């Protein structure tokens, strides 16, 4: 009888952000395991997770950074694009440190750019999408600075956004408990094709498409995740399962917000993380909990799987759910993931 695999420990990276961590993303086109992060301290950082060292840092000079995405050019150069509290969208070249402004969400009293996506998987490598608290969704061509190529009005402030490259569709979670879906088949046109109320009763924090694009997983401040299928947008034959919701990230009578959801790139299972400092793995299709990772010192504000799902980056960063108080230092942890922790129940 084989001995059970020993669970890996989460390892903290050196030189982490010095204020609240807002986003994590691996550079998928890079030859190494490069992880980009943004923070309320206004800087972009890139760590080589295999060597456990920081390889890049740049102050974007626009105040707190709320979101990021990455761009891989044809000559294998990499850039990080950030969304700022001031509404600006800026890029920085990781080779030259040259930074430039792409555009902004500055035409309102609440300009913050809270969400960013690269549209390289569905459209063109030069296109990115942004959404913000100004209730606007934009598509930008980074080669043409200043004005967005496309603008779509949203029903509320944008809190989270995800891309379904198979169907050229973007999902957004907004204030007012609305989930919106925008068709982006053309880089010069976009259409809001569905706007519906979430089944969750409280404010949403995160939204992610299932790998096949036929459904979404949504997390809320009330320690609950909803799995909803898109009967309105996909053929009935693909909408095989009924929507459902489940409680998570709770301890006795204490309920913690669900801050992030990320799907495993190979197995289609997903991880959730919240203000309880825990990461849990779930098999959404079979409605099963797979495992819970050891608790970290404080709230988890962001997650990211690397390209093969064998590594999970975790931002341990207090999100002020209890207001101003003493809290542990912000850290980025890297946790090696075992296949046995992530595989669907039926695939074991």
TrEMBL record:
Pfam families, sorted: WD40 (PF00400)
Ranges of the WD repeats in the UniProt entry: 258-292
InterPro entries: WD40/YVTN_repeat-like_dom_sf, WD40_repeat_dom_sf, WD40_rpt
SMART domains according to UniProt: WD40
Keywords annotated in UniProt: Repeat, WD repeat
Domain of life: Eukaryota
UniProt entry tagged with the keyword Secreted: no
Protein name per Swiss-Prot or TrEMBL: Cell cycle arrest protein BUB3
Protein species of origin: Fistulifera solaris (Oleaginous diatom)
């Amino acid at each position: 009888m084989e001995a059970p695999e020993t669970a890996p420990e989460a390892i903290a990276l050196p030189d982490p952000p010095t204020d609240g961590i807002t986003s994590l993303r691996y550079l998928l086109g890079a030859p190494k395991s490069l992880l980009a992060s943004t923070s309320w301290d206004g800087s972009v950082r890139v760590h080589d997770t295999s060597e456990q060292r920081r390889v890049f840092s740049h102050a974007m000079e626009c105040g707190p950074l709320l979101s990021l995405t990455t761009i891989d050019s044809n000559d294998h150069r990499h850039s990080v694009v950030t969304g700022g509290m001031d509404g600006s969208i800026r890029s920085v070249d990781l080779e030259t440190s040259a930074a430039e402004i792409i555009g902004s969400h500055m035409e309102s009293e609440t300009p913050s750019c809270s969400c960013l996506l690269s549209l390289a998987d569905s459209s063109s490598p030069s296109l990115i999408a942004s959404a913000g608290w100004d209730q606007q969704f934009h598509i930008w061509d980074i080669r043409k600075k200043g004005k967005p190529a496309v603008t779509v009005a949203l029903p509320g402030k944008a809190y989270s956004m995800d891309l379904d490259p198979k169907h050229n569709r973007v999902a957004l979670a907004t204030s007012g408990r609305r989930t919106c879906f925008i068709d982006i088949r053309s880089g010069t046109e976009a259409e809001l094709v569905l706007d519906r109320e979430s089944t969750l009763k409280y404010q949403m924090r995160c939204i992610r498409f299932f790998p096949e694009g036929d459904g979404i997983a949504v997390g809320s401040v009330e320690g609950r995740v909803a799995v909803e299928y898109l009967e309105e947008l996909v053929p009935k034959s693909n909408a095989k399962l009924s929507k459902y919701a489940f409680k998570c990230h709770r301890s006795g009578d204490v309920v913690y917000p669900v801050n992030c959801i990320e799907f495993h790139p190979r197995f289609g299972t997903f991880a959730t993380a919240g203000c309880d400092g825990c990461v849990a793995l779930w098999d959404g299709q079979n409605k099963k909990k797979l495992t819970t990772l050891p608790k970290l010192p404080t709230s988890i504000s962001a997650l990211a799987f690397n390209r093969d799902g064998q590594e999970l980056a975790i931002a341990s960063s207090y999100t002020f759910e209890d207001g101003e108080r003493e809290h542990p230092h912000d850290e980025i942890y890297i946790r090696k993931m075992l296949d046995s922790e992530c595989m669907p129940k039926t695939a074991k």
